[in-house]
Each structure stands twice: as C-alpha cells, then as structure tokens.
Design a protein that fits this description.
Elements (H helix, E strand, L loop, with lengths): L1 E5 L14 E6 L2 E3 L19 E2 L8 H5 L15 H4 L14 E3 L11 E2 L4 E4 L3 E8 L2 E8 L5 E6 L9 H6 E10 L4 E8 L5 E7 L9 E7 L5 E8 L2 E7 L3 E6 L1 H5 L4 E7 L12 E6 L10 E7 L1 H4 L8 E12 L4 E13 L31 E8 L4 E10 L6 E10 L8 E8 L5 E9 L5 E8 L6 E7 L13 E4 L16 E4 L7 E8 L6 E8 L8 E6 L3 E5 L5 E2 L3 E8 L6 E7 L4 E6 L2 E2 L4 E8 L6 E11 L2 E12 L8 E3 L14 E2 L8 E6 L7 E7 L1
Parallel strand pairs: 4-6, 19-23, 35-43
Antiparallel strand pairs: 1-46, 2-18, 3-14, 5-33, 7-8, 8-9, 9-10, 11-12, 12-13, 13-14, 15-16, 16-17, 17-18, 19-20, 20-21, 21-22, 23-24, 24-25, 25-26, 27-28, 28-29, 29-30, 31-32, 32-33, 34-37, 36-41, 37-41, 38-40, 38-42, 39-41, 42-43, 44-45, 46-47
Length: about 700
C-alpha cells in the first residue's frame, strides 16, 4: 500500500525573462552533523598530493607580446599617490591586532592547494576561515571571543548528507559569508571542471557547529570559475569567469528555509585585453537593507587605455556598475548596464595584460600573480539611511614599471534606489618601493575604512599589513599609518599564484572590529601559511547599540487558520560606552499578523522575545515584519521574513503502480501526478492497509 502526502509551497517552473536563463529548482540535502565532533583533516605532509586550482584563462600570445597602444597615452605614474598616503598620529588608533592567529593557533597551514584563496567571515560568536586543499575546500571555525578553535579542519563536501556531486568532486575556490540580514552562514566551493557545479551550504540556524546545514548543488551551463558571492535581500548573487563575465542569482528566501530553490543566470559582454574577468557582486553589511526592490549590484573596472585603445580618455578610467534585476515568482529578470563612473587613471598593464608572474620576492626569480583583472572582493555595501555606500579596491601599476599599488574607492548614492551612484572618494596606496596588492577593503559602522593586503619586493618577503582612514579625514587620504600583521620570512617558489583573493569583514556584534585573513610564507618548504587578525579604530563606536535576532526567515501555512511563528529572540549589544535602556516594539506589522514583545525594554547584553502569529487573512507570499529598538534618537531594526502559503496543496494521485495493483515488481518505481502548490512530497510505504507498520517514510521531490 502507498500513502503520499503533499507538503507546502508551490515552485513555479518559470519562464525565461529578457537575457536571463532560469534553471529548475534544486532541492537540498541535509547535513546533520556536529562539526566539532568531525575527525579533523590530517595535516599535509611532504609527498602528499598538491592540487593547482585552475583559473580559466584565455591566453592570447599576440596580445601579450603586443599590448594595445592608446592614441591618447597617459604620462607618468598614478596621479593619486602623493595625496593619498598621509600617515600621522592616528597610526596608534589602528595599531596592534587584538587577535593575531597563525598556524600554531589553528589558522590553516598549507593543505596541498595552490593558490590558497584564503577567505573568512565573522558572525555573532564565531569566525570561519577557509582555503583550498588537495581535496577541495578546507574550513576551520574559531571562537571569536578568544581565538580558540571551536571546530578543527574539516571539509563540508565529505560530511554525511552532502549532495553526491559535491561530496565526490569538491574542488575549492571557497567563499565564506555571514548573512547578517538572516543571522545565517553561507559556505561555498565549486567542483572539479566537468560537472560545472556550485556547491552551496546554508546553515539551518545561527549555530554553524551543531545547528546543521542545507546542502545545495546548483549546476551551471559552463565551468563557473572564480565564483564570488554577495548577500542581498532577494538573492545570493554570484559573479563567475566563464570566458565572459557571467552572473547568477540564487533564490535566497527558499534556501534559508531549506526548500527547493531556483537559479537565474545572465552574462555581460567581456572586456578586450583580459583573458580572465569577473563581475564582483556587492555584499550587504549591517542590518539596514537596501531600498525595497533594489536589484543586485555588480562592479568591474575599465582601463580604457587597454579596453578602448584609440578612443581612451587620457584623464580618466572607469568603474562600471551592472544591475541584476530578478523576479523569482515570475521567473523573469534582466541584467542592465553598465553605468560608468569616472575615476582617476589606472594602469592594468602589470608585466603585460595576461601574465600570472609579476611582483618580485627576495632570493628568487619566481614572481607572483598581480590579479589586475577583477575588482577585488569584497565590494561591501552599507546603508546609512540618508545615503548608501559601496567600498572596494583593485590593483594598479603605480609607476609604469610594474610596481603594484591598491586603488581604493567609495561610491555613494543619496536619494533612494532610483538615484545615481557617484564617486565620493578614491586613493592609491603605494607609499614606498614595495608592491601592494591582494587587497580587501571594508567600512565600519562609523564610516571609517580599513584595507588589508599583501606586500612584497626584491627586498621584502611577502608579508601582511593593513591601514585605513577615519570618516572625518580629507577624502582620499589614508591617515592610519601601516600596521604589520606578520612579516614573511620566505619567498614562495613552488608556484606563481598568490591568493586570488583575501577577506576583510566587519564584526556584526559591534560594527567596528575588522577581521582580516590572507596568506604569507614562513616555513622552509616555501609553501604558504595563513593569518587571521582583528583590529579596530579607537574612534569607532560613538555610543550606540546593536540589535540582532534569531529565526529571521520562517514559513507558515495559514490554510487551517491562525498559526504561531517561531519566537524571535532579540539580543542587544553596546557600541562604545553606550549603557542606556533600549525600547523594543514592532515598527511594522503587515496585515494579518499580530505580535507581542516581552520585555519591552532591555539593557545592552540583555535579550527579549518577540511572539508573532499569522491569521488566515495574512496575504500569501513574502511578508516583512520589522522589529525596532530605540534609545533616544538612536534606532536599530531587525527584519523577520515570513513566507506565507494560504492554500493547502491539491490532491495527490498515484499513477504507478496503480492503486490496488497486484503482481507488482519487488523494486517498483513509484510516480504520481504533481499537486498544485506542492514543493515536496512525503512518501510512506507500509506492510498493512492501515499503515500501522511503516517500511519507508521519507520526504522527496
């Protein structure tokens, strides 16, 4: 006998919108494993496998030998160097790291992958670091409070419950993101070339260790090289290098709920001159969202002496913004742009336009990859209410003799989602004869900017440093001096690939503490090691508070009537010397919802509980419930996203084997007609007509 019960939520097949391909929904598997109890991956030993993670690169020897010659050549070096580097007494304000973790502290040491692609992010309680390894991405989880290891080196793809394709061929290029809007974690890697898959792991709760994960396997039409992810309210946006710069949108709302989620794809026209290119997605920091309906944002740079030879502007180059506007319900979308924003001239010709070998190291002829092609990760988005910001960086030749420097920029938009983005400030970090590159830039909640990066030259071993500026400094100036995280003691001789990317993120608990991770070399094998450092501006954190919540993504079915949501636990933290009462209330309760918060007033370090119910009149679809914390003129909010299904799924009809059929094969294939509104089905097989003894009971597509 057979019983099949339809569960909630319909998934539309969708149609292809203008220049966008829509892929079938992907159902996740579930990883239910305490990561602290996983047997740690063994350390790499000489003689163990070494894996070179490929970068899909279209090499043109004619272009490399004869780069484009601009009709309007730019004379001299970078125009911003002299007015950018203005170190002063504030060097003490961004001084010694609070935590500085190396391999002896659990930071990942060489695990058999080149380049390491060191990445990480910080959440409420933990910091997660990842690198490439000989068997795919390696992850380590640290307790944020003291830097101790909470879960030693593991691979998500090897855990029970990971989707088979990800388990069998995880290949690295990892990304770690903390989704501050939902209080969840996102871990990703791609698979070895051929399957063309993006393996995406979304934590089921805010606890990345014991809370479990949803494992998604999205299949791309071509190899999704160099995938870079960004958190946005309606999607996880992804930029990849596929010969052309491709972009993806992953259905974030469904992924947070562990439901079947769709993927959309589009592509932009590539830039001539580069054999490798990607559009870098914007990634939201803070709990203030972009304007309602704002499309996902992607950035790249255009060095028009390279990409528009013969028609280049001798005084300016450009940042280009693309908008990926998707509608998962309608199954449509469009990639719009680019919108060009003029910046001071940059020079992408670093040892040519395509060479992986450029920046010098001591005691070796082996030089390092400059990564001239992409805007470096992350492009950080932050909404201050009266204006929005995008902060990023790229690598440029600062003297026309292949010395690398970091061009950082801040874009601003004032007036809402329809207003234009404009350049607010930019500067070039190149204070001496060393090359600086592999940067990651971010802005804290007070508007101060920090940059973490690599430094190298013929007399300086590859090392890690950081600098920054206060929001009150003159535009474009870097005034915080330069702080060393670690001085390298060896050069990397085994490969030319260096990093591909690093990671600077901002602690959501205080909005002030920066966390940076990247690579350096200190061992006799001349193989990479990694470092994790945390630091902050003394000036950050004028008295304010933070407000965080749990269970920020939920689903309910109101067909039976009123239903209670999971309680939302609200936790307040202090920034600076804030020590005042915080009033809690609902800023907005949509039609059909009721709620109560107890207590209505908490102090920093305290917590409250929001109880919310949805009635039968709650509208079907997505609703946002905004919970507000106020103290005088200060206000912080958290948003609860609720997906409401108003109608129960339709009747399920078994088609094969037919109801009551005899002489059925011992291993039949069960099939049934799709039920309107159903996302998944519960399959039950019993040995008696009353279903008293179940042989099988599982949820399937």
């Amino acid at each position: 006998m057979l019983s099949i019960l339809a569960t909630l939520l319909a998934v539309s097949g969708g149609a292809t919108g203008s220049d966008v391909e829509v892929f079938p929904a992907v159902t996740p598997s579930i990883i239910d494993q305490n990561l602290a109890e996983v047997t740690p991956l063994p350390p790499w030993r000489p003689g163990d496998p070494v894996k070179l993670v490929p970068r899909r690169h279209i090499f043109d020897p004619l272009l490399e030998a004869n780069p484009p010659k601009p009709v309007n050549p730019v004379a001299g070096g970078d125009p911003l160097i002299d007015e950018t580097w203005l170190p002063d007494w504030r060097a003490k304000a961004l001084g010694t790291p609070a935590l500085n973790l190396g391999p002896t502290d659990g930071a990942i040491d060489f695990v058999g992958g080149f380049p390491p692609d060191t990445v990480g992010d910080v959440g409420q309680d933990y910091y997660i670091q990842s690198t490439n390894g000989s068997q795919g991405a390696t992850y380590v989880i640290f307790n944020k409070s003291d830097g101790s290891v909470a879960a030693p080196a593991f691979s998500m793809s090897n855990l029970p419950g990971a989707t088979p394709a990800c388990r069998d061929s995880g290949a690295g290029d990892p990304i770690v993101l903390y989704d501050e809007l939902a209080g969840r974690w996102l871990l990703t890697e791609f698979t070895s070339e051929g399957p063309n898959r993006l393996c995406v792991y979304v934590s089921r709760t805010g606890d990345p260790i014991s809370g479990g994960w949803f494992s998604y396997d999205f299949q791309a039409p071509s190899f999704p090289d160099y995938p870079k992810y960004g958190v946005w309210p309606d999607a996880y946006y992804v930029g990849t290098n596929e010969g052309v710069p491709a972009v993806y949108a992953l259905e974030r709302t469904k992924m947070l709920l562990g439901q079947a989620a769709r993927m959309m794809r589009s592509a932009a026209t590539g830039l001539s001159g580069f054999g490798f290119q990607v559009l870098q997605p914007a990634d939201v920091d803070g709990t203030t969202r972009p304007p309602a309906g704002a499309p996902g944002l992607f950035l790249r740079h255009r060095d028009d002496e390279v990409h528009n030879p013969g028609s280049n502007d001798p005084g300016n180059d450009f940042l280009e913004i693309f908008e990926f506007d998707v509608d998962f319900e309608a199954g449509t979308g469009s990639l719009n742009g680019p919108t060009q924003i003029a910046i001071a001239d940059i020079d992408s010709d670093l040892c040519g336009l395509q060479s992986f070998e450029c920046f010098q190291q001591p005691n070796t002829t082996q030089t390092l990859d400059p990564l001239r092609e992409p805007v470096m990760r992350r492009v950080q988005y932050r909404n201050f209410g009266d204006y929005e910001t995008l902060v990023g960086n790229l690598t440029t030749d600062v003297d026309t003799f292949d010395r690398g420097g970091i061009r950082f920029f801040e874009l601003r938009r004032t007036g809402g989602g329809q207003a234009p983005w404009e350049l607010f400030q930019e500067g070039t970090l190149a204070p001496d004869g060393d090359s600086r590159w592999m940067g990651s830039a971010a802005m804290d909640s007070s508007g101060n900017i920090a940059i973490g990066y690599s430094v190298s030259s013929s007399s300086t071993f590859p090392s890690l440093r950081y600098t920054g500026r206060l929001s009150t400094d003159a535009n474009g100036a870097l005034t915080a001096g330069e702080t060393t995280i670690i001085d390298g003691s060896q050069s990397q001789t085994a490969a030319e690939r260096w990093g591909d990317y690093s990671a600077l993120s901002v602690d959501p608990a205080d909005g002030c503490t920066f966390w940076f991770t990247s690579e350096y070399v200190e061992n006799d094998n001349q193989l990479w090691s990694t470092r994790i450092a945390s630091f902050k501006f003394d000036e950050c954190g004028s008295a304010n508070f933070t407000l965080m919540g749990t269970n920020l993504s939920q689903e309910v079915c109101t067909a039976p009537g009123s239903v209670d949501l999971q309680n939302v636990t609200l936790t307040a933290g202090a920034i600076g010397d804030f020590n005042s009462a915080i009033q809690l209330d609902f800023s907005a309760l949509p039609s059909g919802f009721t709620g109560d918060i107890q207590p209505t007033s908490i102090m920093p370090g305290g917590s409250g509980t929001a109880s919310i119910s949805a009635s039968g009149t709650a509208p079907a679809g997505n609703s946002e419930i905004v919970i507000r914390g106020t103290s005088g003129s200060l206000e912080q909010t958290v948003t609860v996203n609720v997906l409401v299904t108003a109608n129960a799924p339709g009747q399920v009809v078994l088609s094969s084997p037919a109801d009551g059929a005899a002489d059925v094969l011992f291993q039949p294939t069960f099939s049934w007609s799709a039920a309107a509104g159903a996302d998944q089905y519960r399959f039950q097989l019993a040995s008696d007509a009353g279903f008293g003894t179940l042989i099988e009971d599982r949820t399937v597509n």
